[in-house]
Amino acid sequence: MPRPVRLLLLTLLPAFASFLAALPLVAQVPGQGLPPPPASSTAPGTPGTPAPRAVPAFDPVAATNAYLATVPAEARSRSDAYFEGGYWLQLWDFLLGVAVNLGLLASGLSRRMRDLAERLARPRALRTFLYWAQYLLATSLVLFPVTLYEGFTREHAYGLSNQTLGAWLKEQGIGLALGLVLGGAAVTGLYAVVRRLPRTWALWGAVTTIAFLVLSFLVAPVYIAPLFNRYTRLSDPVVREPVLALARSEGVDARDVWVFDASRQTKRVSANVSGLAGTMRISLNDNLLERCSLAEIEAVMGHEIGHYVLDHVYKGIVFFGVLIVIGFAILKAGFERVSARWGAAWGIRGADDPAGLPLALVVLSAYVFLATPLLNTIIRVDEAEADLFGINASGQPDGEALVDLKLGEYRKLDPSPLEEALFFDHPSGRSRILMAMTWKAEHLAESEANARRAAAADRLRGFSPARAEAWVKAHQP
Ligand SMILES: [Zn+2]
């Protein structure tokens, strides 16, 4: 989606991006980085305590290392470079956004866009909307080269995109239209709040933003996601039956499983939970279904069911709601301080003047940028919870490990603990595989039986690594 829209969503609706983008698998395991447990326990039992249990021959750390070692060095360094480049892009995007917004203020463009809106319309809400339309178009245009690089050129350079330039541009157009309508509604509504409640707008602005967030969660799966992808119900019975059985066993309405054609955009394997109340649903992408064995699909499905059953969407709204309230308090204080010093020079009449929107977005984006490690950690903790839920639901530790390696195509597999804490909104591949292998060590017979059953189903549907490979090739432009 266009950068200003993304900026708005990231600033006004931080949870929107994270929850709708995708909630794929994750696992965070205490003990990561610790030396492997001894292969055989020789700890002397104190007299009177039972003798130590025989330790299973299966060593989770060795198994984790063996899985990681299956990734060729060249593939590993490419995905590391892609993901680490993302750290820098976050910084450059933030600085660039600040520069563009300050440029609009200092050049007097923001003031002139406000003046033009006032000449064109009388009602204040319409004036605000007209300002927004100009702001969105101007910033989309200025940032277009960066958007093109990040969203298209770079994705192709790393072999992740399946899109032609035409298809990509069409999606940008849809995103821009959505930004005009939804962003326009949000900005117009928020400025109406600021005008009517000049003393308490920080609180009521936060409440309005949260209401808008909840509304967008509710409508996104039904009205927004289908603009970009086709959604159908899971159809192949060989996959559908075990997946629906898994859902039913956790009390999830089995009709809620959808498949979408992400292969139009990317080769990434992914799944997510979106929506709210009556619109809440689990969606798996077609890459997942075509590139993964049933054991992997079940592992992912268990994870998504975890998000669903553990009410992560509702808990997310509460967490992000608190951060939005804090964000608006910072916005009010920051806006007043800066506009007291520069407001007259920039032609900003007050907090209720849309000409001050670039300043408001600078303050909010600084807050979101600085809070990124916290936002990542809030999401990562939920993801780790969903992973544990998922492994217990699916009983497919090797499926989990294999799909974690596929997620490693676009996410660094083995970061340092600090890197993981700061930059990862999902546990790293190593954390997740170690979680799965630890589970396997303690459920060996169950793991093997589940893997055998899934492998039999894979033979029935004609799944093979070669067929999965062919799927990827067939969808690349
Ligand atoms: Zn998830």
Your description of this structure?
- By secondary structure, the protein is mainly alpha-helical.
- The protein has one domain (10-29, 58-477).
- The protein contains 20 helices and 4 strands.
- It has helices at residues 3-12, 14-21, 60-69, 73-106, 109-120, 124-142, 144-157, 165-196, 201-228, 237-249, 286-291, 294-309, 312-346, 357-370, 372-394, 397-407, 417-423, 429-442, 444-460, 465-475; strands at residues 231-233, 257-260, 271-274, 281-285.
- It has a 4-stranded mixed beta sheet with strand order 1-2-4-3, with helices on both faces.
- A hairpin with a 6-residue loop joins strand 3 and strand 4.
- Helix 12 (294-309) packs across helix 15.
- It is elongated, with a radius of gyration of 25 Å.
- The two termini are 21 Å apart.
- Zinc ion (ZN) binds next to helix 12 and helix 15.
Strand content: under 5%
Q: What are the segments in which pLDDT stays under 50 over at least 5 consecutive residues?
A: 1-47
Coarse morphology: elongated
The SSE string, one letter per element, is: HHHHHHHHHEHEEEHHHHHHHHHH
* Total strands: 4
Distinct ligands, ions and cofactors found in the model: zinc ion
Read across the widest sheet, the strand sequence of neighbours is 1-2-4-3
- Gyration radius (Cα, Å) is 25 Å
End-to-end separation: 21 Å
- Helix percentage: over 70%
How many separate domains make up the residues? Answer: 1
Indicate the structural class.
mainly alpha
Count of DSSP-assigned helices? 20
Describe the biggest sheet? 4 strands, mixed
Arithmetic mean pLDDT? 89
